[in-house]
Amino acid sequence: MNWFKNIFRKSSSSEISEGVRPNNHEHQINNYNEVSKKFLIVGLGNIGGEYVNTRHNIGFKILDYIAGRHNVSFETAKLGTLAEINVKGRKLLLLKPNTYMNLSGKAVHYWMQKENIAIGNVLVITDDLNLSFGTIRIKAKGTDGGHNGLKNIQLLLNTSEYPRFRFGISDEFKKGQQVDYVLGEWNDVERTKLAERFELGKQIVESFALAGLNETMNSFNGK
Q1: pTM here?
Q2: Which one, out of 99, 155, 163, 211, has a CA that is 20 to 30 A from the CA of 107?
């Protein structure tokens, strides 16, 4: 690998001395290295005080926990609020869209473009009715499963192949009460277990940035 780098180093220096622009291939390699260390972590939820502690806002709550552990605050930005953390040389942008759930894709698409973040470096955190409470499911792709936030992200990105971190909220509601259940607050038993789940969520996000998606799936799925 050193000889490969030396070829570009010699070529670049000679071109500069002759008044020629540096080799474009070297620029692309350097740019890729910068991009690969930058990640967009998106927590899905709805803005407004009435939604803060609802099941549908688990994405927001996990990001709030991570930001708190890193002693950073969210600041208002275009289409959402942002916090930035650094984990062993990786830059993680924590994004809470303020577009309401069914337009989440607007914020995801905008910040991917603005920060030049590859789709493989995006992780979307969302609730999942099909998993028992607190169960973790990390996937590289998948359907929206009827989730309006994921549906809009897929529409705006024009693909269903993006990493997602699903947090189980179970489906213990009677027929016709799904909306009330999803937008309802955690019960007492669930609340006592959330702190441990938030810490696990933090570990998952950091593992995604440091070890990659496959290793993270192998280490955390089903926990």
Answers
A1: 0.83
A2: 211
